[in-house]
């Protein structure tokens, strides 16, 4: 992947101030300013309300600093990464934050500033520099840079078009990640998937000239075992149940689960957590050809369960099923799956709030608290046992796409749970796409849930 590293300005760099002001504190802030700045802010109608930064003049036509209104308490509660608005609009150079912030608000501001510096410019000739921030005092700068650059990896992988991000290229990125951290990788590819009992990964990917494969990374020699499984469908045509053209436009992002677990793995390895990490990515392209798998085919999964294919466009759960079945064979202490799995999750919760599923109350509570703390929103949805009959077609053990259109995200999660055995398990139905520009989140590929998991992981497995 192209180098796109995010970092704070070096310590000691001369920096202009960015004053953070609320309506409640505006009068006090204004009273401390020179008369010229008071007049300037009055002319700009600035009162501390939420909005873009206002540059402050200095003698000789220079810029002395800037001020950013954070808005009232309601505005602040509704806005994630509000300070990142300024990062995207200030002139290049170094800046420092001035204003009273809690530790969590300070870290959110600093991380948001870093993420606002992300540019996917692999295919652009013009490069646009970004303003840099001097890390606020008390911030764990190295940790935030690690998190931000793991998100860069995730975003770059998702944003790269399928012509340049097929199973071969995803494998290359996977190997590069492993090499950077001294991890081991094995790959099972093509017809070897059948020989080693991964029939559903093979069935989904066999129609593409780009061979399907299972990527397997291992890192760490001590501690509890954490296994991450990410959906790596590098492009999804829908198979023989072909998507309309509008439905394919964003399907380069259908490997977003793989990209997100790779970003999370980079955080874990970069931080040196005392765990044994395994990452499994079934990497395939769901294409159309004479040997495509068909509607009403019955496939036998790695764990012996039979699956009736009632929609070839519900392929993600098939490849994840084989990978999950492999994962539980060594009884990990924590098992996580992440996938751009259902449109139903988006209908229920929208693009910005991904659901997660788990039967473990303590896991759910820890994840929810971490998600709120690091501003990486998640919402728990139920493994609703009463819907189990919906995924049982009668002719086979399982149905990959129950008819009726009801509870699509829940039934997909229930399907995956059948392959997670007795593991302590959570599944994330993520979207991995920002529909329009937002602070720290430019339009395009985005990771979801990884920061919350990274924050929660020490408590989840007691490292």
UniProtKB/TrEMBL annotation:
Which domain of life does this protein belong to? Bacteria
Q: Where is the Cytosol aminopeptidase domain?
A: 311-318
> What InterPro entries is this protein classified in?
Leucine_aapep/pepB (IPR011356), Macro_dom-like (IPR043472), Peptidase_M17_C (IPR000819), Peptidase_M17_N_1 (IPR048816)
GO terms of molecular function: manganese ion binding; metalloaminopeptidase activity
Q: Which Pfam families match?
A: Peptidase_M17, Peptidase_M17_N_1
Q: Which GO terms describe its cellular component?
A: cytoplasm
Q: Which UniProt keywords apply?
A: Aminopeptidase, Hydrolase, Manganese, Protease
Entry's Gene Ontology BP terms? proteolysis
Q: Which Gene3D superfamilies match?
A: Leucine Aminopeptidase, subunit E, domain 1 (3.40.220.10), Zn peptidases (3.40.630.10)
Q: Which family does it belong to?
A: Belongs to the peptidase M17 family.
**PANTHER family (alphabetical):** LEUCINE AMINOPEPTIDASE-RELATED, PEPTIDASE B
The protein in question is named Leucyl aminopeptidase family protein
What is the organism field in this record? Falsigemmobacter intermedius
């Amino acid at each position: 992947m192209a180098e796109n590293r995010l970092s704070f300005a070096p310590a000691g760099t001369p920096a202009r101030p960015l004053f953070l002001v609320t309506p409640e504190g505006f009068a006090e802030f204004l009273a401390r300013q020179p008369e010229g700045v008071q007049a300037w802010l009055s002319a700009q109608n600035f009162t501390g309300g939420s909005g873009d930064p206002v540059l402050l003049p200095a003698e000789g036509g220079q810029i002395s600093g800037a001020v950013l209104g954070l808005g009232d308490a309601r505005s602040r509660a509704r806005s994630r990464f509000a300070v990142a608005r300024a990062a995207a609009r200030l002139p290049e150079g170094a800046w420092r934050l001035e204003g009273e912030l809690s530790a969590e608000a300070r870290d959110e501001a600093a991380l948001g500033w870093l993420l606002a510096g992300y540019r996917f410019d692999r295919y652009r000739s013009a490069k646009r520099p970004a303003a840099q921030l001097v890390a606020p005092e008390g911030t764990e700068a190295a940790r935030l840079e690690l998190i931000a650059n793991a998100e860069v990896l995730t975003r770059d992988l998702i944003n790269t078009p399928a012509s340049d991000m097929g199973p071969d290229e995803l494998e290359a990125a996977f190997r590069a990640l492993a090499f950077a951290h001294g991890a081991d990788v094995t790959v099972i590819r093509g017809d070897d998937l059948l020989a080693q009992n991964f029939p559903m990964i093979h069935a989904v990917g066999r129609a593409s000239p780009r061979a399907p494969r299972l990527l397997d990374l291992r890192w760490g020699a001590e501690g509890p075992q954490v296994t991450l499984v990410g959906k790596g469908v590098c492009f999804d045509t829908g198979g023989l149940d072909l998507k309309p053209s509008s439905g394919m436009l964003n399907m380069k992002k259908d490997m977003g689960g793989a990209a997100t677990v790779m970003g999370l793995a980079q955080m874990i390895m970069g931080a040196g957590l005392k765990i044994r990490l395994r990452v499994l990515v079934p990497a395939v392209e769901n294409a159309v050809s004479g040997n495509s798998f068909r509607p009403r085919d019955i496939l036998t999964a790695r764990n012996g369960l039979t699956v009736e294919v009632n929609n070839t466009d519900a392929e993600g759960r098939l490849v994840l099923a084989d990978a999950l079945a492999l994962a539980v064979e060594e009884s990990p202490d924590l098992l996580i799956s992440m996938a751009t799995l259902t449109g139903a999750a988006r209908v229920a919760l929208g693009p910005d709030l991904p659901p997660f599923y788990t039967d473990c109350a303590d896991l759910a509570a820890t994840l929810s608290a971490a998600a709120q703390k690091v501003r990486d929103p998640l919402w728990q949805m139920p493994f609703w046992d009463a819907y189990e009959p919906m995924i049982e077609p009668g002719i086979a053990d399982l149905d990959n796409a129950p008819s009726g259109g009801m509870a699509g995200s829940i039934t997909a999660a229930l399907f995956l749970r059948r392959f997670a055995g007795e593991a302590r398990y959570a599944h994330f139905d993520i979207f991995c796409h920002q529909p329009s520009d937002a602070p720290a989140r430019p339009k395009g590929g985005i990771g979801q849930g990884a920061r919350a998991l990274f924050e929660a992981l020490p408590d989840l497995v007691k490292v």
